[in-house]
From TrEMBL, chains A, B:
Domain of life: Bacteria
Classification via CDD domains: HisRS-like_core, HisRS_anticodon
Enzymatic class: ligase
Organism: Ponticoccus litoralis
Domain Aminoacyl-transfer RNA synthetases class-II family profile: 1-378
Protein name stated in the entry: Histidine--tRNA ligase
Listed EC numbers: 6.1.1.21
GO BP, sorted A to Z: histidyl-tRNA aminoacylation
Residue numbers binding L-histidine: 89-91, 119, 133, 137, 300, 304-305
One Pfam family of this chain: tRNA-synt_His
Gene3D superfamilies (alphabetical): Anticodon-binding domain, Bira Bifunctional Protein, Domain 2
Reactions catalysed, as given in the entry: tRNA(His) + L-histidine + ATP = L-histidyl-tRNA(His) + AMP + diphosphate + H(+)
Record has Ligase as a keyword: yes
GO molecular function annotations of the record: ATP binding; histidine-tRNA ligase activity
Length: 490, 490
């Protein structure tokens, strides 16, 4: 027979912008997701899991004038030519789910969802193309009590996963107020409005003077590049400045300033009233401005928001990759999107929700040393005689029966040093040894690997002098002795 | 301004072959995954989560002579023209992971993984294009003790998730034995060998006579269609029949028969010896043939298996969609695949593992009524006066503080009947009512909705006659009274 032409070896690599997660990284995330889901459920939200794949049509990312879907999503064509894509968030799918199943679902429909989302974006340091979100949304509730509740729940959630009060702040704004400001400015062109919103979003970075420049002729940025301005007159730009500087000493003062900023605009006034109601509801439930505060500088990038918007940021400082101090920043955000379901049904269905960036939140907790991993390696039963594998398996079975995580060494047992190196790499607390001599005498050797490692680090320490790191016990006492050592370290 | 041309409304539909999962379906799966992971961890396996997306090259599904990837996977091209695809199982990815990270990982590397996988296949009843798997694999262990361990762990896992002993059976075979039989038959052509394996796989369905026909000239099947045969002579086919009918009264008898079936073949003899070792190890640990048994009819479809293969099937009968009794069938399977890592590194790295079809296992438990959902709806605080939302939120806050799942009705409160209908749809155990009159008198009304529903079903039942389904209590006693009712039903 002719030999097949040899195919070149495939590269063992994750695709660009993706990564693998090992051990504690996986279990810590699972624990955080379970904790968040617990809070959401406690608030009355029910679980929903839609698939990772949606039609591009349902996601609303299809551009009808080109034969390729929009950038930002991973998309392909099904056999029947339907464009399909991986979900890019957990907000668009439930709008589709609600529209599809609305005859069977309760109204309001309160649901939570968790899982990976995918973005077809350029990866960067710490930015991956798959990451986890954990969302809660209320569909069919027009009242801002629904928005207030989500903000309160977000505060509870952050504290529950380990961010203490004072280390986070939830800032609330309202798109209607922004629209009122644009109306007061006389901006009606959609493109120009978008430019103004983008500029407002830069306030935290460039300050009042910078925003003035960007709204007018433009600005030379720190890198020396010239950024074109929106082209408004100074007079026209004034409401934006009034708006951006309207954060007062307390919510009452901020709201008063915002009323000034929106001028005669009816939608603006409505937005301010909604913020007032949210602030009142939260105050009545004891969520003060140390946790949730009205803040006009919050914009939120996504185009689908129609009312209140909110963002949770962590307020403590971390060191960035260049060793400079900076605030950790945003870990969650959300808002009201009253038109997403309407896309499908033609009927207005109000909705509001929050999305927690679980991977960023985990990174923050890790950064602060607040993730205390519960991972412990298994007890390793070593193999001295490969023909007695059944004996070693029986030991492991005894240990597991007693609730102890344990395994037999399954690699090549020839080199015993490799077995102990393996136990070390697995962070095993204990190794068990039974050679032919021990077998004959009915005993086993039990090595305390944690003590062993400490002694290796500092062999002169007095306190360990009288403590053996290896014990010989009768085979019948294997489980009891291992348990005794594990209890020392738990 | 010219008005934008209206885009047609998108269809609110899951893509073909995908579905949404609601409430208990999601939480029951999460609980099952956590239980399985618990067993895997207990056996010493560590968590790994690779991303849903792999390069087609790493998955090994790329056909170099066409510009489209193989069928079976969902694939697309990245911006740099790299073909990417959704993973179709949890076996190919860890082979890539091990090859990529082998300098940092312990050897053997024991890992478990769980999550959705995607198949670009024709969907059918109960067959979806996204489903969950939960796998455990040991990479770098050549000993069949690793295979035996995985079979034992699979038995433990099935019992732990609620399949009692006697309702499942793990059947073990060895690809080397199959290869030995082919050698004994003188079949060396790969295509013909594949045809023979496919025929063996049909033994459960067509029986000995059917297999004889299919190995020879062919067979008229039940639908009247003629199925072409493999074209072997009767004499050539004989070892297959010997092999297929070699299952004896116990493992020892089966192994003896298999030794006959492989004749002079060295690889066949090796396979039988490995099965012997597996049976001995399992027997020593107390896993008898009531749980794990040597069975020559197990083939396993995937091409990458090289040694022991195993399959767990549920042995109880269910009614199929046409009301006929049938066995539930396979819920898990696996085997040894010694060449998957070698694809990347050129070096042989033995590996073995198991994959549990979590969604099928859930379906089986549901079918048998063994999933007792712990889901209970939230207590619903109704809204009688929309201006007193803060009062209602305060009640809910009190209930939540006390650990009770609760929410305020956030829909339009105008029609009170809708609020109770909502509570009903949410399967709420309790509704709380506070109108203006109650507010003035400092009381709340508490409705026992579970009792109410029972009374509505059968209004004449004596036992409920003296039990009220609605209580009036002071506002201060709200939490205590709700707790009292909930305790009746827990």
């Amino acid at each position: 027979m002719a030999k097949d032409k040899k195919a070149p070896r495939p590269k063992a690599q994750t695709p660009k912008g993706f990564r693998d997660y090992f051990g504690a990284e996986v279990t810590e995330r699972a624990e955080m997701l379970a904790t968040i889901a617990g809070v959401y459920r406690h608030y009355g939200f029910d679980a929903l899991e839609s698939s990772g794949v949606e039609t591009v049509e349902a996601l609303g990312k299809f551009l009808p004038d080109v034969d390729r879907p929009n950038e930002g999503v991973f998309a392909w064509q099904d056999e029947d030519d339907t464009w399909m894509a991986l979900r890019y968030d957990l907000t668009a799918p439930p709008a589709r789910v609600y529209a599809q199943h609305r005859n069977d679902l309760p109204l309001p429909y309160r649901r939570y969802a968790m899982g990976p989302v995918w973005r077809n974006e350029k990866p960067g340091p710490g930015r991956y193309r798959q990451f986890y979100q954990c969302d809660a949304d209320t569909v069919g509730a027009a009242t801002v009590a629904a928005d207030a509740e989500i903000c309160a729940m977000l505060a509870d959630t952050l504290e529950k996963v380990g961010i203490p009060r004072g280390d986070y702040l939830i800032r609330v704004n309202n798109r209607k107020v922004l629209n009122g400001v644009l109306e007061a400015m006389g901006v009606s062109d959609a493109a120009q409005a978008a430019d103004v919103l983008r500029t407002i979003d830069k306030f935290d970075k460039v300050g009042e003077a910078g925003v003035r420049e960007l709204l007018g002729k433009g600005r030379l940025d720190a890198s020396g590049a010239y950024i074109d301005g929106v082209g408004l007159s100074e007079e026209q730009a004034e409401p934006v400045i009034t708006f951006l500087t309207s954060k007062g000493a307390d919510n009452a003062a901020t709201l008063e300033n915002l009323r000034g900023a929106v001028g005669e605009s009816a939608v603006g006034a409505e937005g301010v009233t909604e913020l007032q109601q949210i602030a009142d509801l939260l105050a009545a439930q004891g969520y003060g401005p140390d946790r949730i505060v009205i803040d006009p500088s919050v914009v939120r990038g996504l185009g689908y928001y129609t009312g209140p918007v909110f963002e949770a940021e962590l307020t403590f400082e971390i060191l960035d990759e260049k060793g400079r101090k900076r605030q950790f920043g945003s870990v969650a955000g959300g808002g009201r999107y009253d038109d997403l379901v309407k896309r499908f049904t033609g009927q207005a269905v109000p909705a509001t929700g929050v999305s927690i960036g679980v991977d960023r939140l985990l990174a923050a907790l890790r950064e602060k040393g607040r993730l205390t991993s519960t991972e412990q390696g298994p007890v390793v039963v070593t193999v001295m005689d490969r023909d007695r594998m059944a004996d070693y398996q029986a030991m492991v079975a005894d240990l597991r029966q007693a609730g102890i995580r344990a395994e037999v060494y399954l690699g090549n047992p020839k080199n015993f040093g490799n077995q102990l190196k393996y136990a070390d790499k697995r962070q095993s607390p204990v190794a068990v040894i039974e050679g032919g001599d021990e077998k004959d005498r009915g005993v086993v050797q039990i090595k305390d690997l944690i003590l062993g490692a400490k002694m290796a680090e500092n062999a002169t320490l007095e306190e360990w002098k009288d403590r053996p790191s290896q014990y010989e016990v009768p085979r019948a006492d294997l489980v009891a002795k291992v348990r005794e050592i594990l209890d020392l370290y738990s």
